[in-house]
Amino acid sequence: MDTKEDILCLIEGDAKAFERIFRYYSRAMFFIAMGLVNDRDIAEDAVQESFVYLWNHRKQIDPAYDIQYYLKQSVRNYIFNYFRHQNIEKKHAEDLNREQQFWGEYAPEDCSEQIERIKKVIFSLPEECRKIFIMSVLEGMSYADTATALDVSINTVKTQVKIAYRKLKTSFQECSLDELVPIFIVIILKFFL
User: Fold this and answer.
1) Contact present, 133 and 164 (Cβ < 8 Å)
2) Mind listing the pLDDT tens digit for each residue in 91-141?
3) What CA–CA distance (Å, rounded) separates 152 from 177?
4) I want to staple 130 with a disulfide (CB 3.0 to 4.6 A). Which of 10, 91, 125, 163 is the partner?
């Protein structure tokens, strides 16, 4: 196979040259992908997406560049992005599970009107603020551990906790601190029981 000639034709948009390159390299790229992920479907997707990327970006290809190396890098990038995406999904699922577990501890008949109001205020917080508040205040994690778990700075944790407390205070201006502390303690105790 004259790879240089096929690459020049590919750059010009020749579909036949693309097919020849695909037939010549796709099997090797599949085995590279399988070595990285050990899942046939994902490996096939990696190869397919790499060749789609090659076709869509053919005008930027340098004819002197090693096309096999280009395809290997493309397959590797697809697999690494797949793993990165899986880790992000897992982290979000764990965060959601933690919140659902926390709120699932309460039976509706156990919740007083104020506890329901507190829950509504906490749910109305922006997502990052809510996660930080639940982990550091309701779960009792240290600011440092919360910051590490969420990959944010300790100052971010402190700021978000202050924001959450400020919103709670604003929402319960008519209640005294003496009335709110026992309600908050009940929420925290129910979480740990």
Assistant:
1) yes
2) 777 777 776 665 555 444 444 676 677 778 888 889 999 889 888 887 778
3) 30
4) 125
